[in-house]
Write a structure and sequence with these properties.
Helices cover 35% and strands 24% of the residues. With 341 residues, it is an alpha+beta fold. The longest helix has 23 residues, at 91-113.
């Protein structure tokens, strides 16, 4: 425990509180402007702890050069309460770490002393699962406690759209009752299939879904060894929603140790105009619809397929399948950052 900086800080802080009455703390905010999928510069500023995030945002925006900030940018404000002897950690985050550490010791001791009969202690029996998961719950929800995302133009607070668990693995075969085209797909899914085989299969599957339904809900498939894939259906209303949602999925991947992700969805494509770099593909007059799949894993394998399509007489007409060379899915950078740790 002495070699663990956070645990040592906890003991020293307890002794300091007993002898001196309080710790030396300060309130700071890590402020950044998110304009793309790369990590933005972070500016740490001291803030009055009584200010809310919107009040901090007003102060920050007074010093921003608006001409250099894109219209779809997000202002991120992360509140941090720092103790001088643990400057690199937020206090709440450090305390969750300590709680998780000591909870494991208590449960191990309890199981050992009671001959693996934890039901002898009603409190631990009732709350063991909840207590053991507190670290994961904090990781998944810490943005709710510490971080605020705002539209940099209106300072309206932004929240990721709720997404629902999609089809379970056992439901997949039931598709044959609704989509007879499944019999035409030769590739049979296998839990041991590699990432490219999965990307090939799901891309052909997605094209059939789009042809039948006329649309394809943005879908994410998370995978890991010896486990059924997890399907998530997303609601993405623009670039800001996409950023916040992918960030949330990255947290799920970190907590639940997923090793691969496949993203499927419709997109706009257009030939960019160098004189109008601020335009998104959907804002061009010459925009075209396309279906896209991006597959990557923690081993840095990555596959991207796109198919431009047209709607003619209530039918989807596909162009040739395109496989971009030396391209990468920048919008999945938050997930790549998790696997790079």
């Amino acid at each position: 425990m002495r070699e663990d900086k956070i645990l040592r800080w906890l003991i020293e802080s307890r002794n300091k509180i007993v002898k001196q009455g309080d710790l030396e703390t300060k309130s700071v905010a890590n402020v950044s402007v998110i304009q793309n999928w790369y990590k933005p510069p972070i500016n740490e500023i001291s803030v009055n702890p009584t200010l809310d995030s919107n009040e901090i945002a007003v102060i920050v925006c007074e010093s921003l050069d608006r001409d250099k900030i894109g219209k779809n940018s997000i202002l991120k404000i992360e509140r941090r309460w720092i103790e001088n002897n643990l400057a690199n950690y937020e206090i709440l985050e450090a305390l969750v770490y300590c709680f998780d550490f000591y909870a494991k010791i208590i449960f191990d001791a309890h199981n050992y002393l009671t001959n693996n009969k934890p039901n002898k202690c009603s409190y631990l029996s009732n709350f063991e699962s909840e207590i053991k998961n507190i670290k994961n719950d904090f990781t998944l929800n810490k943005d709710n406690f510490l971080t605020t995302y705002l539209d940099i133009n209106t300072l309206e607070q932004l929240n990721p759209k709720n997404f629902k668990i999609g089809l379970r693995e056992k439901d997949f075969n039931n598709f044959e009752d609704n989509y007879d085209f499944l019999n035409e797909i030769n590739f049979k899914r296998d839990k041991n299939s590699n990432l490219k085989e999965q990307a090939d299969f799901y891309f052909e599957f997605a094209k059939k879904i789009l042809s039948v339904d006329g649309f394809h809900i943005p879908t994410v498939i998370l995978g890991k060894k010896d486990a059924s894939p997890k399907f998530l259906q997303l609601k993405l209303d623009g670039k800001r929603d996409t950023y916040l949602t992918i960030h949330k999925i990255a947290q799920i991947i970190e907590v639940e140790n997923y090793e691969s992700i496949i993203f499927i969805g419709e997109m706009w494509v257009a030939i960019p105009d160098d004189d109008k770099p601020e335009l998104l593909p959907g804002e061009y007059t010459n925009k075209m619809e396309a279906l896209m799949i991006c597959a990557l894993n923690k081993d840095k394998e990555e596959y991207i397929y796109t198919n431009i399509f047209e709607r003619k007489n209530d039918e989807i007409v596909y162009g040739p399948k395109q496989i971009p060379q030396n391209n990468t899915a920048n919008f999945l950078n938050p997930i790549k950052d998790v696997w790079a740790k």
